[in-house]
Amino acid sequence: SQTIHQWPATLVQPVGSPLSLECTVEGTSNPNLYWYRQAAGRGLQLLFYSVGIGQISSEVPQNLSASRPQDRQFILSSKKLLLSDSGFYLCAWMWGLNTEAFFGQGTRLTVV
Amino acid sequence: RKEVEQDPGPFNVPEGATVAFNCTYSNSASQSFFWYRQDCRKEPKLLMSVYSSGNEDGRFTAQLNRASQYISLLIRDSKLSDSATYLCVVNLPGSRGSQGNLIFGKGTKLSVKP
Questions:
Q1: Do B87 and A105 lie within an 8 Å CB cutoff?
Q2: Which of A37, A42, A109, B12 is the most buried (most CB within 10 A)?
Q3: Nearest alpha-carbon partner for A67 in A39, A86, A48
């Protein structure tokens, strides 16, 4: 069966510090991978998606970036965090078009 | 118009009540539809897919009306454990063949009281 791992579960970082969140998927190959953010009281916002190694598409302009160095690894990064980067970050994978998404347990990031 | 819109809620209902969630989507190219459930401070989890013919899973019934671009979820005989936020989700085709993007509504919070 497929599983998705995301870490860390919680993170408190000062403004201006770097960020690296990691997500890995097991039990499948060539998944579509996604990073979402959910701010307090708001819906899920798609940040990045990837259909393959080294292929990253960004949905919204921001100071975040994503990378996919391996087939089942997806990384969300920032060089300098802003207060507005606080939120609940969720990694997800999908088989492809017309399929449901499966989410990792999320990382709750607080920028102070 | 927002891509996926849901009742803002919250819904506060007694145990045993029937609850209906409504959702509309703006992009007629949307190809698949889902309801997710999200517990407080947890990740969303798939509740059920939604098909044009309608589908039922125990106390839960989902309906899709493509002509009206409308999706619904009905929960019968609600339980305390049904308390959560219910997210309407639409899958849009991406610019590349194998990639789909899920667009989420903001969700409707349900609280079932004893």
A1: no
A2: A37
A3: A48
